[in-house]
Specification:
- By secondary structure, this protein is an all-alpha fold.
- It has one domain.
- It contains 6 helices and no strands.
């Protein structure tokens, strides 16, 4: 049984490496196509096309739905927060208070993050910068995939 578990772990590691390699290669390929001046169906060069902005409400709703669909935060909270409840204190109200404090911190942190990215929008929306970010991201994914394949 232990040998089968080790074999499955190795298989999952190699599958994860393959996924990282494919995603990295796709990202690098797309960045290369953009560098070559890929044209859309109308024949117009979209390399310098501005990034279409979504409304603040649409961005908030998208982020909220993404976080609500992700069970990792809830699992983390249920396993991490109870250790901070003092003995003898009512558990549920105390954990709810800790969760509210955590949520307040996250709103502030992500609000600052969004504000900073908004300030950098002029730089980040340039085609050359977007292409370079895609190249770096693709390279990192490929390197992580190779590392996982070698170590797995």
């Amino acid at each position: 049984m232990a040998a089968m578990g080790a074999m499955l772990t190795t298989l999952v590691a190699f599958l994860g490496a393959a996924v990282l390699l494919v995603f990295g290669a796709q990202t690098l390929w797309n960045a290369r196509k953009k560098k070559a001046g890929a044209e859309d169906a109308d024949g117009a060069d979209d390399a310098d096309a501005p990034v279409t902005a979504r409304s603040s409400w649409a961005a908030y709703r998208s982020g909220l739905l993404l976080n609500l669909a992700n069970p990792k935060a809830a699992v983390f909270a249920m396993s991490f927060l109870p250790q901070f409840v003092p003995s003898g204190a009512p558990r549920l109200p105390f954990i709810i208070g800790l969760a509210a404090l955590w949520a307040l911190y996250e709103v502030g942190y992500y609000g600052l993050y969004v504000w900073c990215v908004g300030r950098m929008k002029a730089v980040l929306s340039r085609a050359a910068v977007r292409r370079r970010l895609e190249q770096v991201s693709g390279g990192v994914l490929v390197l992580l995939g190779v590392r996982l394949a070698v170590e797995g």
